[in-house]
Amino acid sequence: MSAAPELLLIGAAIIVGILQLLWATAAARMHPEQDLKWAAGPRDEHRVLTGVSGRLDRAYRNFQETFPFFVAATFAAYLVAKTGELTLWGGLLYVGARILYVPLYAAGITGLRTLVWFVSMIGVGMIVAAIFLA
Q1: pTM for this model (two decimals)
Q2: Which of 20, 43, 87, 121 is buried most, with the most CB atoms less than 10 Å from its CB?
Q3: Distance CA 62, CA 128 (A)
């Protein structure tokens, strides 16, 4: 039995999230005040990241905000047997847009970045719509 493509897209999105986490973490370690001693400690004081490392951190936080909606919608569509072209294309839009989002955010490209975020949310909306369609 092969996995539904939508479930494979959840796996792809997980990989995107892990890569974002690693990229953001590596960039933060390049910040002088985010050294390994601080990272290994209790981190009681909040340190604000700026520049590319700050943007990568915020992009990862944005992923954390959208990913649960994508997973919940995809699992719901799968469980009620409503997968098909709409859920597949919605999942592809979400994952593809999330891949594009990070370098756009890192580069500080605002207008296009917002459009790409919106495309990712359209993808989630497509999956949710499929749940309620015949």
Answers
A1: 0.89
A2: 87
A3: 20
